[in-house]
Write a structure and sequence with these properties.
Strand content: 15-25%
Number of domains: 3
Number of strands: 16
CATH superfamily of the largest domain: Aldolase class I
CATH architecture of the largest domain: Alpha-Beta Barrel
Radius of gyration: 29 Å
Shape: elongated
Strand order of the largest sheet: 1-2-3-4-5-6-7-8
Largest sheet: 8 strands, parallel, barrel
Number of helices: 17
Distance between the termini: 45 Å
CATH class of the largest domain: Alpha Beta
Length: 533
């Protein structure tokens, strides 16, 4: 293989389904893995490591189903280890499992550290070299492309550089097409990465592609990946959202845009980078992990602006406080409205939400209203639907969709069975509507009664769902007399929105958030032109 140059594309090897699955709290089903793999293929990564087919029935089932699917961009990879000491590759069930997985590409790991060979494998240094070469050669003899993961390489290199490089040469001799240098314990720093990777590339003489597989125990996995690329690595392994054992793996949601937008190298097919935000959130959703809003590039707060000075400057020039156009990674600029906001925030947010004719004077009124309400316990940063309604309600022609006349809630318990009931009386278009409903708690009963009142006139209520209901106690020192803030996330199958309420009574706070949620959804004038899915 010819030596890499700075125009060569970078191979992206995604191990979300294997290494990412070792995250504490993650347990993928077979269907989860197939759905994520399909999404990664749409993104355009080069390799998707599906798991270890010899280790558990779930991974074996994944490879069985993956063989029947068509993949547009990615190669599905089966993962395993070198043969055991003193056992022929063909007699090692784990190695045979790689062959039986039916993938074109296999990734195997072997020991690079003298300490690991002697103390963990408890075999000789020469036997370890044979284990590596013979396993790679065996897989090659069965028509497999082989990526060799040099486990504990950087620690091993610092301990005995000569032996560590000999393990790589054994893999090359066996026929490996790529060598991935693994910072298995995650303890390396960027300048160490540059030094060692450049040494290895020079010693291997361009005979094989060199890449890295890095963990984030020092918080440097992304920086280390970029450092390796700077000195010639052309293959990077990592996970979506940085999932992985302990502190996680190199986060491909940050590595990939840095490669393309900062280093000027190709990592995905043309135009695919704009799918990154959607892919990151999809993987988080399937994994059942909350997305990290503060994640660079793809987090919902990555391009969110709260300071009034920043927003005012960005109205003059969009690059004033953004290092890239967020659309490049499929994200969007957001203005956050809070008690720290200025008029520019409110006017910008109103435009963002599709509300027209919001002038500076109206913006100033909204700012004062927000400051007063946040003093009462509200928080509008994550409740954009409530912000839209604040603006709308200042309009001279505003008419409320409905008005609460009164409500009553009852909770009772009979033996081991509890029940809740809510009665609600509304004014809807000049007509009084009186309904009652039961639920599995007072909030659910309240919601059901409100739905029952609204649905005859607004049948689309049936499509509206509460995605999340969060309660925060603000001044906890007051105990049960504390102010309660309620934040509700909503969706209707197409859009998502959030509303907020606050008060000394949890049901009063809930009512305010519920009422905003339904009014926002049912009043076209306060819905943004394009809400986030």
């Amino acid at each position: 293989m010819a030596a890499a140059n700075q125009s060569d594309p970078i191979e992206i090897f995604d191990t979300t389904l294997r290494d990412g699955g070792q995250t504490e709290g993650i347990s993928y089903s077979v269907d989860d893995k197939l759905r994520i793999a399909r999404k990664l293929d749409e993104l355009g990564v080069a390799f998707i490591e599906g798991g270890w087919p010899g280790s558990n029935p779930k991974d074996a089932a994944f490879f069985e189903q993956a063989r029947t699917m068509q993949w547009k961009h990615a190669k599905i990879v089966a993962f395993g280890a070198t043969r055991r000491a003193s056992v022929k590759p063909g007699d090692d069930t784990s190695v045979r499992g790689l062959v039986d997985a039916g993938t074109e590409v296999c990734a195997i790991f072997g020991k690079s550290s003298v300490m690991q060979v002697k103390e963990v494998l408890r075999t000789t240094l020469e036997e370890n070299l044979r284990m590596i070469e013979e396993t790679v050669a065996y897989l090659r003899s069965h028509g497999k492309r082989v990526i060799y993961d040099a486990e504990h390489f950087f620690d091993g290199y610092r301990l005995d550089a000569d032996y560590a490089v000999r393990t790589l040469r054994a893999a090359v001799q066996g026929g490996a097409e790529t060598i991935a240098l693994c910072d298995t314990n995650g303890g390396s720093l960027p300048w160490q990465m540059e030094s060692i990777v450049s040494d290895v590339i020079a010693k291997l003489g361009g005979s094989v592609r060199v890449g890295v597989h890095l963990h984030d125990d020092t918080g440097c996995a992304v920086a280390n990946s970029l450092a390796a690329i700077r000195v010639g690595a052309t293959h990077v392994q990592g996970t979506m959202n940085g999932y992985g054992e302990r502190c996680g793996n190199a986060n491909l949601c940050i590595v990939i845009p840095n490669i393309e937008l900062k280093l000027g190298r190709r990592a995905l097919p043309e135009g695919a980078l704009a799918k990154l935000h959607d892919t990151a959130r999809f993987v988080a959703e399937v994994t059942n992990f909350a997305p990290n809003d503060q994640m660079p590039y793809v987090g919902n707060s990555a391009f969110a602006h709260k300071a009034g000075v920043h927003v005012s400057a960005m109205q003059r020039h969009p690059d004033a406080y953004q290092h890239i156009d967020p659309m490049l990674v499929g994200n969007e600029m957001r203005v956050v409205v809070s008690e720290l906001s200025g008029r520019a925030n409110v006017v910008s947010k109103a435009n963002e939400l599709g509300l027209e004719s919001v002038d500076a004077a109206t913006g100033a009124k909204v700012v004062e209203l927000i400051k007063a309400k946040e003093h009462e316990g509200f928080s509008f940063e994550a409740a954009e639907a409530s912000v839209a309604l604040l603006v709308r309600r200042l309009s001279p022609d505003y008419q409320p969709l409905f008005t609460l006349l009164d409500y009553r809630g009852m909770v009772s318990r009979h033996g081991d069975r509890s029940m809740a009931e809510a009665t609600i009386r509304l004014n809807i278009g000049g007509h009084e509507v009186h309904t009652a409903a039961s639920g599995n708690g007072p909030v659910n009963a309240f919601d059901m009664a409100l739905r029952k009142a609204l649905q005859p006139l607004f049948p689309q209520v049936k499509d509206i769902s509460l995605a999340d209901y969060k309660v925060r106690i603000l001044n906890s020192g007051l105990g049960t007399a504390a102010i309660t803030r309620v934040l509700i996330d909503w969706h209707d199958g197409v859009r998502r929105w959030s509303t907020v309420g606050a008060g000394g009574n949890i049901l009063d706070a809930t009512w305010l958030a519920l009422a905003d949620g339904y009014e926002y959804a049912l009043t076209p004038a306060v819905q943004p032109a394009g809400a986030r899915n």
